[in-house]
Design brief:
Largest sheet: 5 strands, mixed
Radius of gyration: 18 Å
Number of strands: 11
Distance between the termini: 34 Å
Shape: globular
Helix content: 25-40%
Oligomer: single chain
Number of helices: 7
Amino acid sequence: MAAWIQSAVCDLKLCPYTRSSEVAGENIKNVQPGKVHYRTSQGLGVEGLKEFYAFTEDILTNSEVDYNSGILTYPQVSFDDFMQFCEVCKFGLDFVGLDKHVQLVYFHPDYRRDNVEPTDELVYGHLPPTEWYDYMKEKVGGGAVEDITMQDYQRRSPYPMINILRGEQLARATGGNSVVDLHVNGVVRKASGLSTYVRNGKRLEEVGRERLEELIRGDGTAQQTQSEQSAPATSTATATATATATLTRVWSEEYQRYYVYDPETNESTWE
């Protein structure tokens, strides 16, 4: 995955906080550059949750130099199933009070912002609503993008993955001034990162859909490097979940229902 990060994110200059797939935070005021770590999970369910929480704890309990951020890659699953799994990961952070210390960013080969509900509101870990783009462009300037769906390539990757970032580090990088008022259909919305999203949309359109698909398919067929193989979950972090022999069930306060994952069928649902 590091090769794809380098070619499709760093080389295309889509992320303002890194120019290397190995080191993040270079030349950013008030940010200490540090190593980017990569791990591969063997699946969703209890073990996948344990791997996520263990990786998160490793990042937070080590220095920024040794553990700046992390990329956790998962096997190919549907977009909806992976987004439900990400919701459970976020719920666990909220439950133990780590939501202020960690920022998650979600990627998937079939990422489409219009498939994320609600489509007209900000959703944690996701791009701003597609319909906000024209208002964002008006706010910060920038050339027009003919194909607004190119925005989705900011979050498309060869495999489903979660980028685990330090919340305090992002706050220092933006200087605490990234949130602005955005007027959408006469309603004032709070939004951040507008310049980056608008610039990236224009840049992705210039690169073109064919080239971006080539980058995704190329890394999608590559073998994971040894450093990206799943690391043992030796951390004391635990998943906020209960499990039977085959099912994982996690209660979501936000949705007031259970997320249920069946590892035998690789299917998930809400009940």
